[in-house]
Amino acid sequence: MEIDRWIPYYEAICSDLKLDVNRDMEASRLLADMLKDNRKVIPRDSVMDEVGPLVSGRSAYIFGAGPDLEEELEQALIEKADEWASPSKNDVLIAADGATSALMARSIRPDLIVSDLDGDLEDQLACLGSGSIMFVHAHGDNMLRIREAVPRLFGKVVGTTQLDPMRGAFLYNFGGFSDGDRSAFIAEHFGASQIILLGFNFNEVGDKISGGGSRSPLTPDQERLKFRKMTWAFALLGLITRPQVRSFSQNLPLFAGP
Hints:
By secondary structure, this protein is of the alpha/beta class. The protein has helices at residues 3-17, 21-37, 44-55, 69-84, 99-104, 121-129, 143-149, 179-189, 220-237; strands spanning 59-63, 91-96, 112-115, 133-138, 156-161, 194-198, 208-209, 215-216, 244-247, 252-253. It is 43% helix and 16% strand.
């Protein structure tokens, strides 16, 4: 998504969720500085050169952390387990943060991880060690996690922001607000042929996925905030017209296109 098109949506989200733009800026600068200082991270241009061929022309399966993820994942594995375990697979697998643990529990390594560092870091580090590419996001509420996690990252890591990435900021903005819809915008940006969503339930909030794929309940306040974020995620996904965004469980387009 072009940044000029994204910013009005970002401003509307900030207004609705009472987000502090200055804290988002502070978090973005923190993430940029810490990635620059981390010598274990591969230079971002080299990583970005690898993402394009990995995604372009392929079906992007994006795994969210909704309450239907485990059921839909088991259904998908009936057809796809052997292919997804193969290094020569034709699909690209993108895990939105905590969904990484659900995949790893089934011996499936995602090609891309899109995370604001709220999921289980140990599972994500294991994926990095096996060659996954990680898009790490900065926002005003995750600065502590950035400070704790970024020094431990290594390999193929790219930083993202929800602000206009200023010159020299060392971060990218592909569009999207939550890990799930941001995953779809990344797939769009790099030329996926279609986007298939698993674990995206816009009517029900799922418990948090922890290490090993287990779940732990959210507080009522966390549930309310999560539901509001899902409302925005659904609206933002409607902005993607090419490639087509499909629901795995219904095997239908999520939105009726032209």
